[in-house]
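Most newcomers find our protein records easier to grasp once they have seen one. There is nothing in a record beyond a sequence line and a structure line. Getting from the letters to the tokens is the skill we practise here. An example says more than a description, so a record of this kind follows:
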Amino acid sequence: MARERLTAVGESAALILSKEALAQLGIAIGDEVEVSLLDRTLLLQPLDEAARSQQLATLTKSVFARRQSAYVRLAQGPK
């Protein structure tokens, strides 16, 4: 485990990751990552494009299912 310092970037903060940490995570500059928080522990993991596409498809289906009646009314047009 390495000790790192947060760096100010505007009104936000950035954590500088070493080349070794990037290699261990299998990510590179510009890649998208998933960041989550678990009991005050920051979890960082590569965002797998296939998993991301599947997640987006699942969320889209969920929205369409919840709003199906509204979409049907819209498709029918004005009465």
Q: What stands out?
A: The helical segments are 19-25, 49-66, 68-76. The longest helix spans residues 49-66. The two ends are 65 Å apart (CA to CA).
